[in-house]
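I am writing to request your help with a piece of structural work I have in hand. What I wish to show you is a protein chain and, alongside it, a tokenised description of its three-dimensional fold. Could you please explain, in whatever detail you think fit, how the structure tokens follow from the sequence? You will find the record immediately after this paragraph.
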Amino acid sequence: MKKCMFVLLILSLFLTGCWDRRELNELGITLALGIDKVEDEYQVTAQVVVPSEISAKASTGRSPVTLFQAKGETVYEALRKMTKNSPRKIYPGHLRMLVIGEDLAEEGIGESLELLSRDWELRSDFYVVIAKDVTAEEILNVTTTLEAIPANKMFNTLKTSETAWAATNGIILDELITDLTNEGKEAVLTGILVTGNQEIGTSKQNVESITPEARIIYDELAVFKKDKLLGWLTEEESRGYNDITNSVKNTVSVISCPKEGKISIEIIQLKSDVKGKMNKGKPEVDVNIKVKGNVGDVECPINLSEPKTFAELEKITEKKMEDTINQTIESVQKQYESDIFGFGEAIHRSNPKEWKKIKRQWRDEGFSELSANVKVDVKLQHTGTVTNSYLEDVKEIK
């Protein structure tokens, strides 16, 4: 028995406690970070939760978050400098949003992301977005409705939008870094901006009315080459990009009726297959997209009980999507010369030896000269709870 006790005492010397344990009341829980470039320094803004204000019992009605800010030669230095102002150490372990200023993005985001990719405290499942026409600080300084904590509002809005609308895309840090270091694909990020009166948007007054004076909304996709922002896609081009890259979960497309009026098509499933090949020594891709959809609202005289009507609507939808995708590819090739679609990856997968020969020229000229063959196949399934629209009966009564 004594021997067992002795062994246990010896083993206990090798047991370690929580050497890095910190109490919650020592940490400033940060849900959103903003990074701007001001002259030669990084300006980092942290949106920190005020614990007493998110507690139902202790809340006094003040803002549930506060901002801390500091400048430094590096992002790491700026974060540490915040302790000059913050009574708690900034803790980004629960980060949900990283907002990068447009000026910094145009200069290059690679260096500013280095710490975030390295820091062991950070999870990598937070969204990265670009502040459009405003600074990251201005984005984080707007109060929000429905979600009291602005970072949660930004996170949930982007998550919902990328699921139900095909012009935004939620990119997390790991995905971004993969694209930044990939020779066959460039990065994109969703833009975020402030609409309305920004001055009132920073105050509690902004959330006290039914219609806020300032709102944070998502815009279209930002195009990168290496780590530098080149410009922005339009809404239709952003939809075309998501079609090609298999990023559409659910969306709505409005098409013209055969004669007059409009019909909304709900896309419930989209699968994109991009295959690369070499044709007479030149790179080429085939983009094949299969779509399943339902008829949404019908605002034209059309008989949906006839099979040929469905076939006609399918052809119209296919034509519209093909035109959008082709226009998107052509625009990006001519305007930005940046392979955001990953066509280089497709060439690499199908022809590794040929890819080695052309990859050095891919970013400069290979992508812009690429031919893309786009084919969309649409199958419509349902019309909802009714077949033909009641609007025809309304017109007859009038």
Q: What stands out?
A: The mean pLDDT is 89. The CA atoms of residues 116 and 122 lie 7 Å apart.
